Structures
1.
Amino acid sequence: MRIGELAARTGVSVRALRYYEEQDLLAAERSSSGQRRYPESAVERVVLIQQLYAAGLSSRTIAELLPCVVDGRATPALIERLAAEREQVDRRITDLLHARDRLDSVLTAATANLRTGAACRREAAPRAR
């Protein structure tokens, strides 16, 4: 498939797909006219790359981990690295859950204030002297 079709099927911009190629995250064959051609498996790979980016991994880390994640080929060092990345994702999830809980508390209080007619007031920050 051509780059535009891959972009449409994955919801990723053409520019991002070119960046993935530059970072050795994605490979394309070239037609005789120089157009990129991707195999069907590129759709799943792009989705995986997007998931890893969303988890906070860098391009370099994704490039190192893709062989383990995609093909199951791994060295002990790569498995250790993957486990460390997973721990970081777990920490971010925990932090996000705490932030969500805090927002829920604020929403509950704000909703109660609306019912009672009390307004939420923004407190001014103390001025520096």
Note: The chain has two domains: 1-73, 74-116.
2.
Amino acid sequence: MTKNTMRFDHLVLWVADPVAAAAFYETAVGLEPMRVAEFAEGKVAFPSIRVNEETILDLAPHSFAPRMTMLPGSVESAGHPVNHVCLSLPGDDFDALRARLEEHGVPVSGIDTGLSGARGDATRSFYFRDPDGNVFEARHYED
């Protein structure tokens, strides 16, 4: 991949409690939290979680909405989750994520096959919600 190739950098999720959300993503999903202590100390506006070396999810508290003034109507977006976020994982990690979610009591959907995505048709996928109602799809493409 070249430096000039467009990439997905981050997505902002509205959450009720960013510290609790970061803990969920760390323990149940297995993602690395970032800037949680700084957020708790009031040094940054929100924490994030790292998906991979190029992509993060920002965990914006609903109280952050008044600062969303970059476009008309941005303030009103608080509390409106996106349809879903899809995470692509290798086979072993896919299985480990599903098991970890079930261990944490997170309801998961059945396994779907052949759903189309960025890399073609996925071998298998399932869906789950975070504590704020944001929907995630986990998928595995044949290696």
Note: The beta strands are 10-15, 32-34, 48-52, 55-61, 85-88, 116-117, 120-121, 124-129, 135-140.
3.
Amino acid sequence: MKHMKQLGVLLACCVGGSLLSLLLRGLLPGNVLGLTLLLALLIFGAVRLHHVESVADFLLQNMAFFFLPAMLGVLEIWNDIKSEALAILAVCLLTTLCTAAATALTVHIVFRLQHRETEEAFDHD
């Protein structure tokens, strides 16, 4: 029963995000708004981490299953896109590298800021 409640919280955020997207006339995607809604609920304490943690962990551990429909869709249109496959792969590689670089830079900046805060705390003591 615990897992059903946790799944219900996640699905409620998903549906809430989709409804917000409809209200905003598709300005932002429903899945992005749903995750933002869940984040806001977690930050403000309306939802505690233990309310969603085990189902979220299960979904993250089995994320590959969620990519199967997309891959099957690509296989269905393969004849239409095979002439552009090299360009598509190049864009995928480039965006992956850009994402990795942005993530690494963000982590580096956060570590430097945390280290600076730690040093300032020691200086004030």
Note: Residues 69 and 95 are 22 Å apart (CA to CA).
4.
Amino acid sequence: MELVHFLEQSYFHEQAEKTFLEQKEKILRLLPEADIQHVGSTAIPNSLTKGDLDIQVRVPAEIFTVAVEKLSALYAINEGSVQTDYFRAFQDDTTDPLLGVQLTVIGSELDIFWKFREVLLANDTYRAEYDELKKAYEGKSMEAYREAKQRFFARLMETPEFQRL
């Protein structure tokens, strides 16, 4: 059973930002029309994080298939993640920190990662609540944490802050 552990974002911020900028440059060389966002907890000051870097690559629907092909040349497809006509997840376990890339069609159902970041940046109460959830799952099952995280984000999607985005 995989266990989950968290540390303060400040431990990872500098390296995560450096890796984000390096990866953003690589992706833009292949997909100049992409909107590339640093998402996830390493993008949220004062938050707890597992220490991995999450990047959202947002593209128009008409280039999604090409984007999948081009990103597949850079990263491994995350086989454990959902795959649709508007979403693909990739990973790179060789970067520091470990990297997850979420490719989404702009305006699609899963074009939400940047919105979560914006809501957590704008509302410290939500960020603190998310950190409390993480503390409750420290050293516990990754699967159980992911289920709780999914419930938290489903609730966050119902907030006025999220709805405005």
Note: The first strand starts at residue 7 and ends at 8.
